[in-house]
Amino acid sequence: MKKYRLTDQRTVLGIVSKLTTTILQDKDTKQKFTLQNPVAVKDILHSVHITIATTEPIVSKPKSLVCVLKENRVELRVKPVNPYQDDLLQVYEILIEPLERSAKRAAIEDISAYEFKMAQTADLGTVISIYGKTSIINQILNQWQIHLEQILANYGYFIKKIQIGFYYAVDTQLMEALAASKAPYYVRDANKRIFYSDRGFFSPKKLSEIYIRSYLDSLLLNNIKSTLIFPIFSKGKILLGYFEIISNLPDLGNPVLQSDIEGAEGIGPLLSFLDQKAEEFVFQLEFAYAKDWETIIRTTPVRDISQDGRGIGITFPKGTNIETSTLGSPVSFQMVINSSPYTFYGSLRSIKKGESNSTNIGVQIFQCDKPEGMSYLSAYASNLIGEAVS
């Protein structure tokens, strides 16, 4: 393994706090920054926010900030908290790469993945448009509606229900317009006719006033005060469906959305959360229709693993031909944890050339063949990282 990927809020905050006296450099523009005011945010993502400072105007919003310490190269992966404040960033991942002279690198080299397989998957759009909601799809929809309702309720949202739909079956002006725009849509308060149209959200001004009035009246007739429709994309950014979050209260019943929608705990973390869940939902659908599993390699070294156990990097030797594979393809592999084999399932996220004609891939992990597997992998990763980031 050559890198540690850190995602735990407490760990990320601890590292960022130690870097407030260090100069970091934008990986792309090479502009230099210092970090200020690291803070753990009590949002749905368990975010860590920082404020960046520089002696010159910011050239562009950084995506990655790097520095080299005594034994490690540290990279902060960041993104804007809101579109109106260039210096406020969320640190969503930290990569720590032990330098060659560091003894920590050698201590974590002997980790392997076994029986790495890849599958062909059906075109979900075609399957759904031809066969509609099959029993398999309906089962997944029901599980996910309950799953999302529970999570949002736990984080201060008052949810009447969540509907998951597919755009092949839309039959209203609004849904047809959303399908064409591929944008999210948010009615903050149907009674006061308040919509959210920043961050690329669909604006109701694109529809007729008569239609919007009728639409809002229909919501109020059903005691719906707010609704958020979030698009779901399959492989290749092809629009597939949507999450529709419905509430009896304005702003989904969430006091932060009502008082400070662009704040640290406002619409930004909610959208990032829904984006993550949409990706996981699509994987569940694709996995259900995966076929023709092919063994790519029997054993191969693990290059890096994320602290939460949800991401892993694997190196393939020359001749495996994995470089021609399709991103998003379902994959499976085994890892041995506490002397027991666990099979993990995920999707192919990245393919890059490595050293000596090898190929490095990134896999996002979504599930395991045993219920305890995901938590074991997370604990396993945290133990590996352990002393290196203390």
- Second rung of CATH, namely the architecture of the largest domain: 2-Layer Sandwich
By secondary-structure content and strand pairing, the structural class works out as: alpha+beta
CATH class of the largest domain: Alpha Beta
Rg of Cα set:
23 Å
| CATH superfamily caption of the largest domain | GAF domain
| End-to-end C-alpha gap | 18 Å
N-to-C SSE string, H for helix and E for strand: EHEEEEEEHEHHEHEEHEEHHEEEEEH
| Cα shape | globular
Number of domains: 3
The CATH topology of the largest domain turns out to be Beta-Lactamase
Q: Helix count, per DSSP?
A: 9
Largest sheet: 13 strands, mixed
Level of helix content? 25-40%
Total strand count, please? 18
In terms of topology, how is this protein built?
Elements: E1 3-6, H1 9-18, E2 24-26, E3 32-40, E4 48-53, E5 64-68, E6 72-80, E7 88-98, H2 103-106, E8 112-121, H3 124-131, H4 135-154, E9 161-166, H5 173-181, E10 185-189, E11 194-196, H6 209-221, E12 226-234, E13 238-247, H7 255-259, H8 267-288, E14 290-306, E15 311-316, E16 330-337, E17 340-353, E18 359-368, H9 373-385
Parallel strand pairs: 1-14
Antiparallel strand pairs: 1-7, 2-3, 2-5, 3-4, 4-7, 5-6, 6-7, 8-14, 8-16, 9-13, 10-11, 10-12, 12-13, 14-15, 15-18, 16-17, 17-18
Helix pairs in contact: 4-8
